[in-house]
């Protein structure tokens, strides 16, 4: 007679310390998906809240509107002229002065600005629209002087880009010097680049952080989501833009604010449009040979030179 056998079954212990690697990875992946989903939902809710804000407050400040144009006839006629006409009426004709400088365009920009001048005349807007008779080619071909030029490795003398741009922008502010000397006061400067914008965009920009800022700039996009004008942008830590797409900024403070649709603290900005205090400071000797953007140097010379700008 055969002996009976007892079958013994061994059970593995699945304590946390002895989980198979594949199971642990699946759990970690599941936790990541849950956390990321909650994060995305949070961002979605914040985005909806940002898109459903109350209308910005009406303007009660005196605004000096500045712009510099070169070869922008198409944009002027399609959007910009109409947007400026609507903007001055929204801000209040009595509250604005418009200063535009055209720098040697070779398209139809001059005629497009004459059309805007005619419209602003009908609205009785105080303004200065200067059309330069010096072409871009003539400016580059003129005799080099001590400042604003650089010798290249091949021995040629060429016009520095930054002094050239700064000179053109300074032309826009010459009326401000005259008006200030005559006793006129402006609360803010609004600089408009060659962008598509609305009056509401400007009002929201002016109301950034409840008006508590050294400067505020609007992020501009040429082909969304590509951040266009990164030349003068420095994040809250002073770094250049990380990339033209998200997350844009390197510093934690700037990225945290951008992710939550809050005003982004930056060290400097210019971008599609910017607003800042009308400070007319004499040029210091250290800036007669600039090696950085005149737009970023504007903020470095501001009395509140800490990162109080917002994008």
Overview of this structure, please?
- With 311 residues, this protein is of the alpha/beta class.
- The protein has a domain at 63-206.
- The protein is 37% helix and 16% strand.
- The chain is built from 8 helices and 13 strands.
- The protein has helices spanning 21-51, 73-91, 109-122, 136-141, 161-181, 199-206, 252-259, 294-300; strands spanning 63-69, 96-102, 127-131, 149-151, 157-159, 188-192, 215-218, 221-223, 226-227, 234-235, 265-268, 273-276, 309-310.
- The chain has a 6-stranded mixed sheet, with helices on both faces.
- The longest helix has 31 residues, at 21-51.
- The protein starts with 20 loop residues before the first helix and ends with a strand.
Side-by-side strand order of the widest sheet? 3-2-1-6-12-7
Largest sheet: 6 strands, mixed
The helix count comes to: 8
Unreliable stretches, pLDDT < 50, 5 or more residues? 283-297
Principal-axis shape equals: globular
Helix content: 25-40%
